[in-house]
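Sat 14:20. Reprocessing the chain from the morning session after the first attempt stalled halfway. Input below, unchanged.
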Amino acid sequence: MTRRRTLVASTMMLGLLAGCSGTLPPLPDPVPAATDLVPDDPSPQVPDGVDELTTDGSAAVRSMAVRIRNVQCDGLSTGSGFALDEHTLLTNKHVVADSSEIQLSTYDGRDVAVEGASSARIADLAVIRTTEALPSYPTLALSDPAPGDTVTVVGYPEGGRLTITQGEVVGTTKDPLNSTLGEVLVTDAEVEPGSSGSAALDDDGNVIGVVYAKTASDQSLLVPVSTVQALLEDDGAFAPVASCS
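Finished this time. Tokens:
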């Protein structure tokens, strides 16, 4: 999480948490290669029922998630992301903002070199392109979930071990941080700083949203899949991430 986002979130009693259809944004500008990644814990927390989320079970859920370290000119922030295809990750804009170097690693400790990154102009979303193939990627759901639907969040809270947590969709609300488009999803799935950019999955393992914030009452906020789809289909929705140097 960037320092600027933290200040904004504190003021509002909110905290930013650091196969799809459509056309992906143009290839972003180059970013330095990843080095010196934090080691991962090979034993993530896996709740009951995750084995049924995808045809490959919990292994596929784990392997689609990527830890992100944003080395900034005046500090370091961590976040999460997930694969859209073999060479493209989706995460939050605030996870990659003010970057000097973006570093990626998978749940089994493999470093992934970064080719470039772009962030959405009017939503808290960003894409990262990699130079090597990512092991697994989910499908974007065709529509937003309904209240009461189960949600599974896969990410790296606090930049530490991979965790998989579950909850339900509580409803929708107008984005309190004014960083995305229209309505956002509210869930009771547990998230923490560093969970930003995590995939939120439905019972079939399809992405229904992207975690981007946590409320003062410990509810998680998601950019809904309908917004994700709309931006990925818009060639002008993303711009290269500006370096802090």
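Residues 3-40+62-138+230-240 form a domain with the Thrombin, subunit H fold (CATH 2.40.10.10).
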